[in-house]
Design brief:
InterPro entries: DUF4239 (IPR025333). With 281 residues, this protein is mostly helical. The chain contains ten helices and no strands. It has one domain.
Length: 281
């Protein structure tokens, strides 16, 4: 059975073919569902461990002192872990936004610089750049949203390569213009590579495993608190679960820069296409 282009690209990049529903679905569906599951699991742990705590906590004073030290120490380390992970993921998102903006600006600079190419080479370069922007907007970014390395704009890059290799310059002025175009093209290729490489940005699975184990331990420690009223105990566990769940949800949503509710879109390329290419054309 033949495979689609997306499947071949995913296999080449070491990714998976199946799309993660978490990033495809609306945040108004995933967020409530995630929090409900998180809170229900936390409260279920509380209900399940209350009889065990009632049997073990003979000396409430000693139990509370020991548990207080454990919860305090664990809370510090788990809180630091969540904070560092959230900051790291946000920095990846900010970096990806910057490289996308950088590439779009490099395309605009190359478009302006190529106006000095001799003969009709400048017009052909302009046309290729316009096609490139449309391929990035309509092809590359949808693929990156599916966490697949994009290939839609590769033909336009090959076309620009061939065009620049075929340019013939004679006068010193044409040579200077051609050199400037080559420098702009090299900068554009580097920015493009950075934008594509950001598709694979994600936290290591081992780190996610540590986060989930930490969340489970936190729920267990909350369940170990000897609270007389079940409703109060569930309220405490539920509120803490909501906050931790929100932090984990936002971190997971930002983990893949081009996918999810908090993601990088093709807005910078659309602006260059509208303000530079279409206006000039």
């Amino acid at each position: 059975m033949s495979r689609t282009a997306d499947e071949r690209a995913a296999a080449a990049s070491g990714g998976t073919v199946d799309v993660n529903w978490f990033y495809e679905a609306s945040v108004w569906v995933t967020l409530p569902l995630f929090l409900i599951v998180f809170v229900v699991a936390s409260c279920g742990i509380v209900v399940g461990l209350r009889p065990v705590v009632a049997r073990l906590a003979d000396d409430r004073g000693e139990w509370d002192r020991a548990l207080g030290h454990v919860i305090g120490t664990f809370g510090v380390f788990f809180g630091i872990l969540l904070a560092l992970v959230a900051v790291s993921v946000y920095e990846n998102l900010a970096h990806t936004r910057q490289v996308a903006i950088e590439e779009a600006s490099r395309v605009g600079a190359l478009y302006r610089a190529s106006s000095g190419l001799p003969g009709g080479d400048g017009d052909r370069m302009h046309e290729a750049l316009g096609d490139y922007l449309r391929a990035v907007i309509d092809g590359d970014f949808p693929a990156q949203q599916r966490q697949v390395l994009p290939t839609a704009s590769d033909p336009q890059v090959d076309e620009m390569d061939a065009l620049l290799e075929s340019v013939e310059v004679g006068t010193l002025g044409e040579q200077a213009e051609y050199k400037q175009v080559l420098e702009s093209y090299d900068a554009f290729i580097e920015a493009r590579r950075a934008r594509i490489d950001a598709t694979a940005l994600a936290l290591p699975p081992m780190l996610w495993a540590v986060i989930w184990v930490g969340a489970a331990i936190n729920a267990v420690l909350i369940a170990f608190i000897a609270v007389r009223g079940l409703r109060l105990h569930l309220l405490m566990a539920g509120l803490l679960a909501v906050f931790i769940g929100l932090v984990i949800f936002v971190t997971a949503d930002m983990d893949h820069p081009y996918a999810g509710a908090i993601s990088i879109d093709a807005g910078a390329f659309e602006r260059v296409l509208e303000q530079v290419v279409d206006e000039s054309g």
